[in-house]
């Protein structure tokens, strides 16, 4: 009776037999201590701190000093607060006005400067015949010094140079590429685009690696043309990459053309190729007006900031409409 009552209490627990090891009891999950969780929160900050320190010391602090210096005077008024006098002087300077007009021209030409590497990267990604050779050829100008590029194109674009001789063979008159105020800025911008689009092409190719190949296959199956594929598949899929290339290309146009301007035109003819960075160098390096140059640098920073934000806003709105 007692044995029956014991057996009816519940299922019998099998006792380990000889030679059979008992299963180890599961260990409780380790608890995160307050010290460990704090270390996990601080680890990203410690890793980012060196880069933030470099940016603050080498970028932001000089920027603040430059902005502060732009409100002081030059010459006899060196170190004296002059308020907005330097900025008013900039607005009355015809050369600075020309530089601002050229900035507006660069903004208008920016879509072309971005579309060229974008289309070439598309052809390379789609593996047109010879795409491996084209990739190397397209990137080659990006490794050349701006001074070397300017010297080469000074020979090619000379009034009696090879380009005008080629135009003469097809019945077109010679063009004064580097002497006509209405033409020279376009020639310099074209040379800059040729010399730098290789980097943008690499960025586009990196963006293509994130694009879903099945979307391209679906477009091909549906009979979409190349233009339709680019508009409805590639552009929406690379919207972030396009935003990045737009901003970096604009910054490059405003801050990386000094070498070309110095060697090819020297700001001429008649000051028609002045850009803010060249104007800054003239005021600082030749006319010894560092405060006025600081004001021009601050104006250039504000121009890049406003143009960059406007571009990002327009591109995001366009991407939203595509979606």
From TrEMBL:
Its main location: membrane. Residues 11-24 have a biased composition (Low complexity). The keyword Membrane applies. PROSITE patterns: ABC_TM1. The chain crosses the membrane at residues 42-61, 103-126, 138-159, 183-206, 244-264, 291-315. Residues 1-36 are annotated as: Disordered. Residues 95-311 form the ABC transmembrane type-1 domain. GO terms for biological process: transmembrane transport. Coiled coil: none annotated. Keywords: Cell membrane, Membrane, Sugar transport, Transmembrane, Transmembrane helix, Transport. It is found in: Cell membrane. It is a multi-pass membrane protein. One of its GO terms (cellular component) is plasma membrane. It comes from the Bacteria. The keyword Cell membrane applies. Belongs to the binding-protein-dependent transport system permease family. This is Multiple sugar transport system permease protein. It comes from Saccharothrix variisporea.
């Amino acid at each position: 009776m007692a044995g029956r009552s014991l057996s009816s209490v519940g299922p019998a627990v099998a006792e380990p037999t000889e030679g059979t090891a008992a299963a180890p009891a599961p260990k409780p999950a380790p608890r995160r201590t307050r010290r460990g969780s704090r270390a996990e929160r601080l680890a990203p900050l410690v890793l980012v701190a060196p880069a933030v320190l470099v940016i603050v010391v080498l970028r932001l602090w000089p920027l603040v000093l430059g902005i502060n210096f732009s409100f002081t005077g030059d010459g006899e008024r060196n170190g004296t607060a002059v308020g907005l006098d330097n900025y008013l002087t900039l607005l009355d300077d015809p050369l600075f006005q020309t530089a601002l007009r050229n900035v507006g021209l660069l903004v208008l030409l920016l879509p072309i400067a971005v579309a060229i590497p974008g289309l070439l990267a598309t052809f390379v990604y789609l593996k047109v015949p010879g795409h491996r050779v084209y990739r190397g050829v397209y990137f080659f100008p990006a490794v050349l010094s701006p001074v070397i590029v300017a010297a080469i194109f000074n020979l090619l674009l000379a009034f009696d140079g090879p380009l005008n001789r080629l135009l003469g063979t097809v019945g077109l008159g010679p063009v004064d590429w580097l002497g006509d105020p209405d033409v020279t800025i376009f020639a310099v911008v074209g040379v800059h685009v040729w010399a730098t689009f290789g980097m943008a092409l690499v960025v586009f190719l990196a963006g293509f690696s994130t694009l879903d190949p099945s979307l391209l296959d679906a477009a091909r199956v549906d009979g979409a043309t190349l233009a339709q594929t680019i508009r409805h598949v590639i552009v929406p899929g690379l919207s972030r990459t396009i935003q990045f290339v737009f901003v970096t290309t604009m910054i490059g146009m405003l801050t990386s053309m000094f070498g070309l301007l110095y060697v090819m035109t020297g700001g001429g003819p008649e000051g028609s190729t002045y850009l803010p960075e060249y104007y800054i160098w003239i005021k600082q390096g030749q006319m010894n007006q560092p405060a006025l140059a600081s004001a021009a640098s601050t104006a250039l920073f504000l121009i890049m900031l406003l143009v960059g934000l406007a571009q990002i806003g327009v591109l995001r709105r366009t991407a939203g409409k595509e979606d």
